């Protein structure tokens, strides 16, 4: 806080708040606070980091956030009771690269401008740095790559990020934080088609809403800047087919499309074949219209191919049996004709047959006598 900016006693200001405060980071997460979005923040134009997560804040995101917080890069309002529409004014936050509004009561549609912010469409990263021992906590510098000498200290201790289906505290040398998390709200409508090659998102989570329509084909183009690594669209009402372009996202390591109304054949190849090796079907369960691997349900085209394969296999088996039968009959006739027309062969054959008959007769009689003799002795 800069005392030179505070109002004088003679000022006619209706508020006792200072005109401007040089706060760059505000972290009030997990404190049980209950109020609307803090009006005090209107007087903090230098803020780059706001974390109000895990509290009981309510109301809507104020429209003045665009003009009063022009340098904001990290906004985390997770697990509160905020409601209303997601304001289009967020588009004016040119540097916003991390937006977490999950676990609230926001409704309405997703503003298409939300995916066109400069902070989202440019490669940005958060770099943790060591601080002198006289500081109260570790800090992290937010660097947008434009000015290497303009790093803003904006994050204390660590960064809690929910990505790839789990939450983690991130403390590292380079942490990419281009992320959008709108999960567990009451959002409706389609996923904006503006998402695509211009987006630098690394993590996008829109799960547990009421989104409808198709998955935009343009999602498959999100690989030109920062490759998409985590995509969660589960537990919505999305329909249509899964875009084949998802298989081109070579950096994708987590995908969840479960419990929607998706249909058609599941695309395969490239990256999709490597996801969730322990249980790949879990990415698609709850979509009764989907078919093909890794689900046990076969697609209609597969039945035709399988029937054709079965028919071919049956024909091959029948041909084998027919050939075997013909060979047996022909062989039998060859032996019969040889015995019929070759008298020496016929004599040898019957002589061998008589000898074999005599040996079998003697063997049976001897064994029978032995068995009856043992039985008589036992009695």
Report on the structure:
By secondary structure, this protein is α/β, with parallel strands linked by helices. 23% of the residues lie in helices and 21% in strands. It is built from 4 helices and 22 strands. The strands form 5 sheets. An 8-stranded parallel β-sheet has the order 1-2-4-6-14-16-18-20, with no helix packed on it. The protein has a 5-stranded parallel β-sheet with strand order 3-5-7-15-17, with no helix packed on it. Strands 10-9-8-13 form a 4-stranded antiparallel β-sheet, with no helix packed on it. α3 (300-341) crosses α4. The chain is elongated and about 130 Å long. Residues 1-15, 123-156 and 304-309 have low confidence and may be disordered.
Q: What is Rg?
A: 39 Å
Helix content: 10-25%
User: Based on DSSP secondary structure assignment, what is the total number of beta strands?
Assistant: 22
What class do helices, strands and sheet pairing give?
alpha/beta
Shape: elongated
Mean pLDDT: 77
Order of helices and strands: EEEHEEEEHEEEEEEEEEEEEEEEHH
Strand content: 15-25%
Q: How far from one another are the termini?
A: 119 Å
Task: Give the oligomeric state.
Answer: single chain
Q: Order of strands across the widest beta sheet?
A: 1-2-4-6-14-16-18-20
Biggest β-sheet strands, sense, barrel: 8 strands, parallel
Unreliable segments (pLDDT under 50, ≥5 consecutive)? 1-15, 123-156, 304-309
Helical element count? 4
